[in-house]
Design a protein that fits this description.
heterodimer; A: 770 residues; alpha+beta; Aldehyde Oxidoreductase, domain 4; Aldehyde Oxidoreductase, domain 3; 7-stranded mixed β-sheet; 5-stranded mixed β-sheet; 24% strand; globular; B: 290 residues; Enolase-like, domain 1; 4-stranded antiparallel β-sheet; 10 helices; 25% strand; binds flavin-adenine dinucleotide
Chain lengths: 770, 290
């Protein structure tokens, strides 16, 4: 542990260790918390999101849907819509190339628009284009769709019933052994021999996790314009390069003719990773020969993105001293009607399901179960919170049955640095015990509590990216200012600030002389994606490499200018060191560039190649590790849960910007309180979402937060990113439910195994308490 | 949103004439926090919208007159919650106004709109019932007043007739102190529509008035004039039995997704017990101040 870096160790006087102060501070070097780059515009409304952009001559699109999940589309009659002033055209499956173009990041199963039948409530059967948004809305409401409702499956049980209607057309995966079922794929991982494992105590329980949506505040929005012999696209998307590829393939265009602009999204959380309605809008724009825009309503967003629900059965074997003997996990994730990236979520999210523990024998079986519901997709935590809820809760059951302290049980089994806790993967890459002990300390583990109060503690772990490819270009201009080109999407996580800090620090520029250019595939080099908490590590390393290339050029320059051997010159964090003295970067750059001026250009590449034999296609670049501890008070008469204290501690390697780290951890915690306490989709018998929109789908507000949240982080500079950083920002969401559930259990004596822990659910459980 | 014509009359007479002429095709617009939503989602599609905000006689405001507090129909929740007279004399109403929606909503939402919208969950309804409010109505045949317990019919329906609108809500100023409280159940602490509302008022003579909403098609008022409910020394069984009878009109719908009927009924009882305790304690404090 480096001096003063760990939240668990003592540190600098004055400030709490590893805790950022509430305000932006410092000059902007690495480790400071300068004001967020772009933050001012974001909070004052100056930032222009996709929905704020308008192109001359644009048309407005609106989707037409039917009020049931699965229906045969009999006829679509737009004659009444055509009479709306400003109506231009209606687009249906019949107006698109035949056979219907399909796309999807894992399976090409998603049609541009529903063909023949709808598969979930919100699956568009047509789209109207009109001169104004109001006209488009009016006309869309007048498109008459005759449909015949068809049998459908909305739950795991219904979808797995052998008599269940098939969600996916079997011709989409002809040679697949599971083709006659609604199981898209099964994922099996394991080690040791679970059957042979001997345990003193076996605890087996079933847990459920609800279907929830991302609820990004910025609406999903798309604009496509014909652009010479190609197209220009604006989308609030996390993976602009992936979108570029999908559209190029669908439209048979060279990549260079598909220009994707991705203005900084206003929240993504995974929901904006993959292509959704861009192909539809592109076909409409090409048909119109004019730009077409589609801005989803909040209700439509519920019908576009969500997290997979899950039913998880866990059988845990314990020795009487609390050591784990085995874990046997079966997780059925309820994914939607089209695969999107959901099956990857299932595979990757269930994979570290045993947690950060030494488990001699493990068997994990996870199924992606198709259903007639909104396609589920990536969502902060990527399939991990579902299994975490089950496994961490089950550990509590075991600890209670054995009479062992729940914290103690975790510490006893926690993997130590370097330990291959998943035998074929990256070994434990952090001093995880520090986070656990610190969280316990912050919550006052073991102290006496008032009646009706309880404590919970849980840990979460997530595999970082398994592959990656990021390029960055950095230009050091003649006046010492810097432009960084990085294809990450800054959706609020603060990537711009982190890259600017790295470049400022490495090239000796003040932070406000650094510009970070993102969000235009015609200008910015390729980046695989903004997901899996990767950007600080992967793109950060690419930016660092680009800066280092420039530093190399500066060394050569300095050697030339001063008649030195290059080997005696060093460039280090913004300073050029000659054997006898130090120069600033500008003192070398200006004379070095000479009379014509110019600039130095550096390119950086960060690649993490696939490992074909690995169960996930690659080992983890790092692990996100978090420990959350909670004190809850339960009102036994009403079932109300009050979170009195909340502590979250993440192992981040190095906080390049401590305040942003804290904001990410607190944001993740609060977002996690949604599925923990109140969020869930409610369906009717036809698979229609009943609580569509903000009135009856509740997310936490400021009044629903814990009375106190403390977030700290552990820094041992042991990550693969710049300066020893690790990815973070999902970690603090992983075990929110587990920690809160444990605290409620501790307060009431009742274990509730279904989320969310609404007052009514808690009350009911208390009524049924023996 | 369907197209409609927008009228902004300057006088009450003109507004009444418009409402009378268009009947059910017309809709009054006050703060719009209910109406605009329903226009947007298409569940209402009037051909005429009559905005009340420029009518001289309907200026928002709260004034005292003849032993009554007169609250203009267009007075917003923020102002009601902040009014010193209401906070002192009709504490439950101030509390109810203070929990409607969010700050932004309360800056727009009017008291008239809340009772005319007639949601069973309307937060101010129980307090108005407990405090014996009177609704002042203007219409084609002039002005009339009706007690609030004859106002609510069922969700979205009141006894307001064709061409009529609400101009004010009056609260008789109580002669003796009263303790009152507004309580509600929501799915979260942040702004939410109530799944149970309850107001309890106890006066110095021991009369307890309980009003509750969101557990049936309209808010209900029940009065205990025996003094037993407010009497801490009364036999617990007697108090419980009385409470049961007072809450008997609750018939929550099974179709709601906000809470199940049995939970609503259980919470109604919890709120009622707590409401009686708080109102009694407030009464004692108020009497102590005198
Ligand atoms: C986000 C949100 C949260 C909310 N939370 C709550 C809550 O917690 N509790 C609660 O009780 N309500 C809540 N509401 C509902 C709403 O804000 C209230 O009912 C409000 O008091 C309505 O007043 P308004 O002036 O906005 O009415 P409007 O929307 O203008 O009108 C409502 C209805 O009453 C009619 N009307 C209005 N004024 C008159 C009049 N003077 N005479 C005759 N008819 C009239 C209109 O025609 C319309 O049908 C919420 C609404 C929103 C959007």
């Amino acid at each position: 542990m480096s001096a003063g870096m760990s939240a668990a160790a003592g540190a600098a006087p004055g400030a709490a260790p590893g805790t950022a102060t509430g305000t932006a501070t410092g000059s902007g070097r690495v480790g400071d918390s300068p004001r967020r780059v772009g933050g001012h515009d974001r909070v004052t409304g100056l930032q222009r999101y996709v929905a704020d952009l308008h192109l001359p001559d644009e048309l407005h699109a609106r989707l037409v849907t039917v009020p049931v999940a699965r229906a045969r589309i009999v006829t679509i009659d737009a004659s009444a819509a055509e009479r709306v002033p400003g109506f231009r055209f209606v687009m249906t499956a019949a107006d698109l190339p035949q056979p219907m173009p399909r796309f999807g990041p894992q399976f090409r199963d998603r049609p541009v628009i529903a063909v023949g039948e709808t598969k979930y409530h919100g699956d568009p059967v047509a789209a109207v284009a009109a001169d104004t948004r109001d006209a488009a809305e009016e006309a869309a409401g007048l498109v008459r769709v005759d449909y015949e409702e068809l049998p459908a499956a909305f739950t795991v049980a219904a979808a797995l019933d052998p008599a269940a209607p098939l969600v996916q057309d079997p011709s989409l995966r002809p040679n697949d052994p599971l083709v006659g079922t609604n199981v898209l794929r099964e994922h099996r991982v394991g080690w040791g021999d679970v059957e042979a494992a001997v345990a003193d105590l076996v605890v087996e329980q079933r847990y459920t996790f609800p279907m929830v949506t991302h609820f990004a505040i910025e609406p999903h929005a798309y604009i496509v314009a014909p652009d010479g012999d190609g197209i220009a696209v604006w989308s609030s998307i996390q993976h602009p390069n992936w979108l570029q590829k999908v559209l190029a393939e669908l439209l048979r265009l060279p990549l260079s003719k598909v220009r994707v602009h991705s203005p900084d999204p206003g929240g993504g959380f995974g929901g904006k990773q993959h292509t959704k309605y861009e192909p539809l809008v592109a076909f409409m724009a090409l048909r119109a020969g004019r730009p077409v825009r589609l801005v989803l309503t909040l209700e439509e967003t519920f019908q576009a993105v969500r997290r997979a629900a899950a039913e998880v059965r866990v059988r845990t074997g314990f020795q009487s001293d609390g050591t784990l003997a085995f874990q046997d996990i079966e997780a059925n994730y309820l994914i939607g009607a089209y695969a999107d990236i959901a099956d990857r979520v299932v595979g990757k999210g269930s994979y570290p399901g045993c947690g950060p523990y030494r488990v001699p024998a493990a068997r994990i079986l996870a199924r992606s179960v198709l259903s007639h519901t909104v396609p589920s997709t990536a969502f902060r935590g990527f399939g991990n919170p579902q299994v975490n809820w089950a496994v961490e809760s089950n550990l509590d059951e075991g600890a209670r049955a054995l009479g062992i302290d729940r914290l103690e049980l975790r510490l006893r089994n926690l993997a130590r640095p370097g330990e291959a806790f998943i035998p074929f993967d990256t070994p434990c890459d952090g001093q995880w015990e520090q986070s656990v002990r610190r969280a316990a300390e912050l919550i006052g583990w073991g102290r006496p509590l008032p009646a009706g109060h309880g404590l919970g503690i849980a840990v979460g772990i997530k595999s970082g990216p398994t592959t990656g490819l990021s390029y960055a270009t950095v230009r050091l201009l003649v006046d010492g200012s810097v432009i960084v080109f990085a294809g990450t999407s800054d959706m609020g996580q603060g990537a711009r600030t982190v890259f600017a800090q790295i470049a400022a620090d490495e090239l000796g520029a003040p932070l406000d002389a650094v510009t970070v250019v993102m969000g235009d595939t015609a200008i910015v080099p390729y980046d695989q994606q903004t997901s899996a908490s990767r950007s600080t590590v992967l793109m950060g390393n690419a930016v660092l490499a680009a800066c280092r290339e420039i530093q190399g050029k500066l060394r050569a320059m300095a050697a030339r200018l001063h008649g030195l051997d290059e080997a005696t010159v060093m460039v280090d964090r913004g300073v050029v060191r000659l054997p006898e003295r130090e120069l600033t970067i500008l003192e070398v750059l200006v004379p070095g560039l000479g009379r014509l001026g110019g600039e130095l250009i550096g390119n950086g590449e960060m690649r993490k190649d696939a490992e074909p034999d690995h169960p996930l296609g690659g080992s983890a670049a790092f692990f996100e590790f978090n420990c959350t501890a909670v004190e809850a008070a339960v009102d036994e008469e009403t079932g109300d849960v009050t979170l009195v204290h909340y502590a979250t501690v993440s192992d981040v390697g190095k906080a390049i910007n401590p305040l942003q780290v804290r904001m990410q951890d607190e944001g993740a915690a609060i977002q996690g309180l949604g599925h923990t306490l109140m969020e869930h989709y409610i369906f009717d018998e036809s698979g229609r979402i009943r609580n569509l929109g903000a009135i009856d789908y509740r997310i936490p507000t400021s009044l629903d937060l814990p009375l106190e949240i403390v977030s700290e982080h552990v820094e041992n500079e042991d990550g693969p990113g710049p300066y020893g950083s690790k990815g973070m920002s999902e970690g603090a969401l992983l075990c929110v439910a587990s920690a809160v559930g444990a605290a409620v259990r501790d307060a009431t004596g009742v274990a509730i195994r279904d989320l969310p822990l609404t007052p009514e659910r808690v009350w009911r459980a208390l009524q049924e308490r023996p | 949103m369907h197209a409609f014509s927008y009228e902004r009359p300057a006088t009450l007479a003109r507004a009444v004439a418009l409402l009378e002429a268009h009947g059910p095709e017309a809709r009054v617009l006050a703060g719009g926090t209910d109406l605009i939503i329903r226009l947007r989602d298409g569940s209402l599609a009037p051909t005429v919208v009559v905005d009340l905000k420029r009518i001289a006689e309907l200026e928002p405001g709260i004034r005292e007159a003849d032993g009554r507090l007169v609250i203009g129909a267009t007075t917003v929740m923020t102002d009601i919650a902040a009014d010193a007279r209401i906070r002192r004399r009709f504490e439950a109403l101030a509390e109810a106004a203070a929990v409607v929606g969010s700050v932004q909503i309360r800056n727009r939402a009017t008291l008239g709109g809340n009772i005319c919208n007639a949601s069973p969950a309307a937060d101010t309804a129980p307090a108005l019932l407990v405090h014996g409010a009177v609704v002042v109505i203007a219409g084609p045949s002039g002005s009339r007043r009706i007690p609030i317990d004859g106002w609510f019919v069922r969700s979205g329906v009141t006894t307001l007739g064709r061409g009529e609108l609400v101009t004010a809500i009056e609260l008789p100023l109580p002669a003796a102190p009263m303790g009152s409280v507004h309580l509600r159940r929501t799915r979260r602490r942040g702004h939410d529509l109530a799944s149970v509302t309850l107001c309890c008022g106890v006066d110095a003579s021991g009369v307890t008035r309980l009003a509750y909403g969101s557990v049936g098609p309209r808010p209900v008022l029940a009065v205990d004039a025996t003094g037993v409910l407010a009497d801490r020394d009364a036999a617990p069984d007697a108090r419980t039995g009385l409470l049961e009878r007072m809450l008997a009109e609750a018939t929550p719908s099974a179709r709601s997704m906000r809470a199940s009927p049995d939970y609503r009924l259980a919470m109604l009882r919890v709120l009622a017990r707590r409401g009686v305790d708080i109102a009694t304690a407030r009464l004692a404090a108020a009497e102590g101040r005198r």
